[in-house]
Design goal:
It is built from ten helices and 35 strands. The chain has about 675 residues and is an alpha/beta fold. It starts with 8 loop residues before the first helix and ends in a 5-residue tail after the last strand. About 20% of the residues lie in helices and about 35% in strands. The chain has a nine-stranded mixed sheet, covered by helices on one side. The chain has an eight-stranded parallel beta barrel with strand order 20-21-22-23-24-25-26-27, surrounded by seven helices. Helix 5 runs parallel beside helix 6 and helix 9 runs parallel beside helix 10.
């Protein structure tokens, strides 16, 4: 038997047509009968019809009910019938009588007898109504964002209508995730033929998964014609990350790359000549976007090989040009040049003119004067004089449109004073700034602190008109320098005695650094350095991506990690936000925690790359046995196929293609990457 909710009836009956008969019945022993009106409602549907009789106040039951049914004119006369019932309960003040199957439009009249006790008598209440269709509530549509972040609440709106046009209804509407409510239930009243939009505000979906929400109508009163349409589902893709294409962090990517040792072809390095084509092929295969090369005007310390040293420098520039890189030439020894800025910069400008105009090395686009000047004896005034002398020479030679000036190359010591001086005294000649950042592999938080500190200086402390793109022109990871049984040399060793530059840890953290620098608005970074070689006769450091010639120029893990980044990004692309990310994230007051780090790169033609890793893997040199983290990224182009490439998928330090990922209509990608690995999700081909 259907349960009866009578709360709907009193307001519904106000809209009913009620006919009251006023004739009195026969007198009783205790008093004459009285007559009054009774309010009736008759509703029908596939399950049959019911008559609802509203009892007078204080009445728990009717003594007798006489019901007469008259079929609509022209219909089956067998529908005409009479129903007589005794002791009809009226729970909640409403009696319900089953009329059986009955068409809409039939007329129902009723006499309901109420036995009154004071005085003792029978009251006869009469009424008449026309049978109407029951209500039929339906969830017409559910509206919700197709994708959201697990940290961002959403609004869900349900469109609800009454379809049968004759009777309104009241019901409870629930929003469910499986069997679990995700919002407070709401009570609605929908008039006959009416519609409404019901919002559920600030719905929290905290699990990064594809979820199906259900809006369900429950407990509709009066009982509905059809309950099969009382629910509707909607899918919402909940992701941990989201590409925010409109939030541009870097307007034009300057690129990633490495320092090219200008003495690789010189006697101080003296590699086997027959091995150089192999090195050159590996350098070109790296596809560096930004290369930094030292130039020294004074080669006396290397006499009698000055000519060969200079030719090695030219050959190195040519190698960078053929590798497709934009080239920064850094005039290294400012301590030597400071005594004669005009003469030294004139000679330097002549070298630059020869490279560009004579030799056709048009990839030379940047020049820096002074390597880490805030660690030398040169004064800031002398430093300024060098730049102004070079700027004058470039203008005079017509190279100012070809070559831009990058200033700084600053280490941490006293950097704020130098930045302030450069910004206030050299703003008119500089096009960009540069810094150097090195850190210990066991303390990667230092790199983030340093990046954030530089950003704080450039974007908040310098005058607005002097805020310029800031590059990292040297970066690297140090290991344990003083390890027993090992020569004390940079960059040191991992805990098992392996050169840190040969480890997966160094590659992982270097790639992490590049991504963090992009997230913090740095347009490019240069790894120190690209390949084995010597800068002086005493130089014996091992920061390189490509190992010594004696070992056959081996490719270290950092080479493969950087190559994946280089292969799937391009100079000139924008760096775009990947949420959750807040403008305050770079401030030093916010502690850094291990988490998934993702940088987004895009161009106006629709190319898109997301590069990422989970920084929980920063201490892993071998494959992790932990479950592979799941990445979920929204905000991507819908129904698009991306290539998924991985660095270090099996712990071997190499790159590989994992397959393709399709985003679907919501623009969401879901995939797993081992904790020790990094990924590139990209629209460009990878190999």
């Amino acid at each position: 038997m259907r349960s009866v909710d009578t709360r709907w009836l009193r307001p519904a009956l106000l809209a009913c047509v009620v006919v009251a008969c006023g004739s009195a019945g026969a007198a009783g022993a205790a008093g004459p009968p009285v007559a009054g009106a009774v309010q009736l409602t008759a509703l029908t549907g596939p399950q049959g019809a019911d008559l609802y009789i509203e009892a007078p106040p204080g009445t728990a039951a009717f003594e007798h009910v006489h019901v007469q049914i008259r079929a609509p004119e022209g219909s089956d006369e067998q529908a005409n019938r009479i129903i007589n019932l005794k002791d009809v309960a009226a729970p909640g003040g409403v009696a319900r009588i089953d009329l059986g199957l009955l068409n809409r439009g039939a007329t129902v009249s009723a006499q309901a007898h109420v036995r009154e006790q004071s005085p003792v008598r029978t009251a006869i209440h009469r009424g008449e109504t026309v049978v109407r269709l029951r209500p039929d509530l339906v969830v017409v549509a559910v509206h919700a964002p197709p994708q959201t972040l697990s940290t961002r609440p959403i609004d869900v709106v349900a469109d609800i209508s009454e379809l049968n046009l004759e009777t309104g209804a009241r019901a409870t509407v629930k929003l469910m995730l499986g069997p679990t409510p995700v919002a407070e239930p709401q009570t609605v009243t929908v008039p006959a033929g009416g519609s409404l939009s019901l919002p559920f505000r600030d719905v929290k979906l905290t699990s990064a998964a594809s979820v199906e929400l259900t809006v369900a109508i429950d407990g509709a009163a009066p009982f509905e014609t059809d309950q099969a349409n009382n629910a509707r589902k909607i899918k919402v893709e909940v992701t941990e990350h989201e590409l925010v294409r409109s939030n541009v962090l870097v307007q034009a990517l300057g690129g990633y790359g490495a320092q090219f040792n200008q003495h690789v072809y010189a006697p101080v390095t003296n590699p086997p000549v027959a091995s150089l084509p192999d090195l050159e092929a590996k350098v070109k295969a790296l596809e560096p976007q930004l290369v930094r090369i030292f130039y020294n005007d004074n080669f006396e310390e290397r006499q009698p090989n000055r000519v060969r040293n200079l030719q090695s420098f030219v050959d190195t520039v040519e190698l960078a040009q053929e590798a497709g890189a934009t080239i920064n030439i850094t005039y290294q020894a400012v301590d030597v040049a400071k005594g004669n800025p005009v003469g030294s910069m004139a000679r330097f400008a002549g070298v630059l003119e020869d490279l560009v105009e004579v030799k056709g090395f048009t990839a030379v686009r940047w020049v820096t004067v002074g390597n880490e000047p805030n660690s030398t004896a040169v004064t800031m005034a002398q430093y300024e004089a060098l730049y102004r002398a070079l700027d004058h020479e470039l203008v005079a030679r017509g190279l100012d449109g070809q070559i831009k000036l990058m200033g700084g190359d600053l280490i941490r010591n006293n950097q704020r004073v130098w930045f302030q001086y450069i910004a206030t005294h050299m703003n008119d000649v500089l096009d960009a700034y540069s810094v150097h950042i090195y850190w210990d592999y066991w303390d990667p938080g230092f790199m983030l602190t340093r990046l954030k500190d530089v950003r704080q200086i450039v974007t908040a402390e310098l005058p607005v008109e002097a805020r310029k793109p800031t590059y990292v022109t040297e970066s690297g990871i140090r290991g344990i320098i003083n390890m027993p049984g090992k020569p004390a040399t940079d960059p040191g060793y991992w805990q098992d005695g392996t050169q840190i530059s040969r480890t997966n840890i160094a590659a992982f953290q270097q790639l992490w650094f590049d991504l963090a620098s992009a997230q913090l608005g740095f347009p490019g970074s240069v790894k120190w350095d690209a390949y084995w070689g010597r800068y002086t006769t005493t130089y014996n450091e091992a920061w390189y991506l490509i190992g010594p010639a004696a070992e056959g120029w081996p490719l270290f893990p950092s080479y493969h990690a950087l190559r994946l980044l280089l292969q799937t990004t391009q100079q000139g692309w924008q760096v775009v936000q990947v949420a959750p990310w807040d403008e305050d994230d770079w401030k030093l007051s916010i502690p850094d925690q291990a988490e998934k780090e993702i940088a987004g790169y895009a161009d106006e033609a629709g190319h898109l790359t997301l590069m990422g890793l989970d920084s929980h893997g920063r201490d892993l040199n071998a494959a992790s046995a932990d479950p592979a983290p799941v990445y979920s990224i929204g905000g991507l182009p819908p129904d698009t196929t991306f290539n998924l490439a991985l660095w270090n998928a099996t712990g071997d330090g190499l790159s590989s293609v994992a397959g393709t990922i399709a985003t679907g209509p919501a623009g969401v990608a879901r995939f797993q990457v081992p904790l020790h690995a990094a990924f590139s999700l990209t629209t460009v081909p990878v190999s």
